[in-house]
Amino acid sequence: MILITEMIHPIGLDILSRYDDDVYYDPDLHQKPEALADRVALARALIVRNKTQVNAELIERAPYLRVVGRLGVGLDNIDQGVLQQRSVRLIVPQGANAVSVAEYVLGMAIAFQRRFPRMMSQLRQGQWIRDMSGGELAGKTLAVIGYGKAGQAVAIRAQAFGMKLRIYDPYAEVEDSWKTESFEEAVEGADIISLHVPLTPQTYHLINSLTLSLLHSHSLVINTSRGELIDELALLKALETEKLAGAVLDVREKEPPGPQDRLAMLPNVFSTPHIAGLTEDSQIAIARYVAEGVKEVLDSNL
Fold this sequence. Notes:
Layout: E1 2-4, H1 10-16, E2 23-25, H2 33-40, E3 45-48, H3 56-60, E4 67-70, H4 80-85, E5 89-91, H5 98-114, H6 116-124, E6 141-145, H7 149-160, E7 164-168, H8 183-187, E8 192-195, H9 209-212, E9 220-223, H10 232-240, E10 246-249, H11 262-265, E11 269-271, H12 280-299
Parallel strand pairs: 1-2, 1-3, 3-4, 4-5, 6-7, 6-8, 8-9, 9-10, 10-11
Helix pairs in contact: 1-12, 5-7
């Protein structure tokens, strides 16, 4: 059986339906632990997004499991060590949503600099206010933290806007003119900070009261990676005291954050429901990559 526990683009189902394995698809199965445990016991392949916890307990319940497909790039919900011990392949579509994420980052940066949401709100209220306080991206300093596929896509597009780049990633090859030796060097005094690192013990609360103190009152923080990279209480304080200009939060420490979300209510916070990489184009590419990768493993003699 091929078990799919979260949303997948129909093209992925179409690819998988061409083969002999039964496909069981329930986009809400990750919310039904007992049903998930029953189904995974027969699964040769498991396809998930970021809500299904592919931990040791779940993997132990899947004696026939040969491959796990991840419909996205974050791997903090998957115990890679246990998969390796069991010789279970992991299919990850690295870079498949990088363009969508990069366009989100630059689009939000432009919207923030030009005050577009506020102006549209004023027009809906019948106010015609020609606000000349907006700024350009040209000449602004952008700190890209993490130089994987998404970070690279952001940097490439930022150049077209004439932005100055600082990049911090101790594990990636970065052009010397952009490379910084530390996270602090990258963000200090930067106009825009865009986060593109995985959630690890080292990156948890990477943005905190100390690192926020390195920014200036015109700085904008953009997070499209994992909500836990930011200490939200420290961010809230910095925004409320105007020590930081704003934040773009596509991901949150708790998702969804709840109805009394003080951060989302601030006028200088643009908040979206974890959709930076969710475009039709990216989801087609991701579903195709994972579905074809899963079938390649199942059809092999390994």
